[in-house]
Amino acid sequence: MRTQPRVGPLAAVPTSAPGLDVDRLLDDPETRIVVCCGSGGVGKTTTSASLALRAAERGRKVVVLTIDPARRLAQSMGIEQLDNTPRPVPGISTGSTSGSGGSLDAMMLDMKRTFDEVVLQQASPEKARQILENPFYIALSSSFAGTQEYMAMEKLGQLHRQGAYDLIVVDTPPSRSALDFLDAPDRLSSFLDGRFVRLMLAPARGPAKLMTAGFGIITNTLTKILGGQILTDLQTFVAALDTVFGGFRQRAQQTYALLQARGTAFLVVAAPEGDALREAAYFVERLSGDRMPLAGLIVNRATAAPPGDLSAAGALAAAERLRASTDTGPTAGLTAGLLRLHADRVRLVEREQQLRERFAAAHPRVPTAVVPALAGDVHDLEGLRQVGRLLADA
Fold first, then answer.
1. What is the distance between the alpha carbons of residues 293 and 266, in angstroms, rounded to a whole number?
2. Rounded Cα distance, 153 and 248, in Å
3. Which of 91, 122, 308, 346 stands 20 to 30 A from 182 (CA)?
4. What angle do CA 169, 246, 186 make, to 5 degrees?
5. Kind of pairing, strands 103-108 and 87-88?
6. How much is the pLDDT for 208?
7. Options 3.40.50.300, 3.40.50.1980, 3.50.50.60, 3.40.640.10; CATH of 22-305+358-393
8. Does position 54 have pLDDT exceeding 90, yes or no?
9. How far apart are CA 358 and CA 210, in angstroms?
10. CA 169 to chain centre
11. Is the separation of the CB atoms in 266 and 40 below 8 Å?
């Protein structure tokens, strides 16, 4: 039985969203992959690390993979630097609710190194050397648009195939590009199957007699424009894509299927703000359209309601009465100021509640956890534990 339902057709609009049971999700042995996605600046990296830590201290063998270039994840986990190799996180509590000690490793996607690993695994040493030294490959593996998403798919697939962990937590890049890795297989297939690539591969795929006069004219033209060596490098690079990365295309498609499968859970992270919740709605709709298993929404940094049940209007009325009274001492002025601050806080809480209810009305089947804002930044394991507790209590 799945921990959380998939998003389906809209039902009757509830007065509030169903609750997201974080511990049930993390404790379920069938949950093997948790993907945290959302727009930038909503606490996605902290949420990913907190979930991974909580799962590890509840007995899971966990690795958290971040493809966000920020370095805060390493700092909060007490690791000097994250790279493409999983690093053990020190200070994990070995006691767990399951009775067995868990573990936590952390890593940051190194786009080029992952690309190089694919080449070394799929090609002979001589062929690999030619590819790794090819200038077109160097440019693609270092900075080409979309490469990060392709390599995120590759690294996720590698971690899953290795089987060293029973839970993989993925922290995706900020903004809508966080879901670009869902398009990686189709984009790569479209490129490899494109007319230009097929043209460049013509000499390698067939005998010379199959080369048409038209191809010769195009080759001569490109040679004049690019130069003979550049054209040769380009043909070598394209041939490498076809021979070496054809396997990547297949693996990327397998990883895409893995993301759709039972055992994967997507968590959309948002802030209690209009723009962030609109972005969250985009993620929810995209995931639903691609039949990805959505576990729920996490609303971070929600404003806590002030104590008592005094309304904003009541607080402002009391402040006005103090202002109009004959008591003009410092105590009365301070009290009136506090009442106005109370009114502002109540209004903010009400606005955030309205935004969440609007989201719930549009997406009534999305379980939601609301996490209150902390007094300071999270910068160590104890801070991550606190966020984990708040997620579970929410």
1. 6
2. 9
3. 122
4. 60
5. antiparallel
6. 42
7. 3.40.50.300
8. yes
9. 62
10. 9
11. no
| CA 309/CA 307 separation, integer angstroms | 7
104 forms bridges with which residues in the sheet? 62
Cα–Cα dist 107/223, whole Å: 43
Per-residue HEC secondary structure of the chain comes to: CCCCCCCCCCCCCCCCCCECCHHHHHHCCCCCEEEEECCCCCCHHHHHHHHHHHHHHCCCEEEEEECCCCCHHHHHCCCCCCCCCCEECCCCCCCCCCCCCCEEEEEECCHHHHHHHHHHHHCCHHHHHHHHCCHHHHHHHHHCCCHHHHHHHHHHHHHHHHCCCCEEEEECCCCHHHHHHHHHHHHHHHHHCCHHHHHHHHHHHCCHHHCCHHHHHHHHHHHHHHCHHHHHHHHHHHHHHHHHCHHHHHHHHHHHHHHHCCCEEEEEEECCCHHHHHHHHHHHHHHHHCCCCEEEEEEEEECCCCCCCCCHHHHHHHHHHHHHCCCCCHHHHHHHHHHHHHHHHHHHHHHHHHHHHHHHHHCCCCCEEEEECCCCCCCCHHHHHHHHHHHHHC
Is a pLDDT exceeding 90 seen at residue 151? no
Compute the distance between CA of residue 160 and CA of residue 158 in angstroms, rounded to an integer: 5
End-to-end, the C-alpha distance of the chain in Å comes to 22
Band of pLDDT at residue 328, cut at 50, 70 and 90 = low
In the block, tokens 């968590």 appear at 267
Per-residue pLDDT tens for 175-227? Answer: 566 667 677 666 665 655 555 455 544 554 444 444 444 444 444 444 444 44
C-alpha–C-alpha distance, residues 292 and 260, integer Å: 5
Long-range contacts of the stretch 333-342 (C-beta < 8 A, 24+): 339/315, 340/315, 340/316, 342/306, 342/310, 342/312, 342/315
One-letter identity of residue 329:
G
Q: In whole angstroms, what is the distance from residue 345 CA to residue 21 CA?
A: 28
**278-to-38, 62, 243, 269 alpha-carbon distances in Å:** 10, 31, 42, 12
Contact in structure between 46 and 169 (CB atoms under 8 Å) = no
**How many angstroms separate the CA atoms of 72 and 86, rounded?**
16
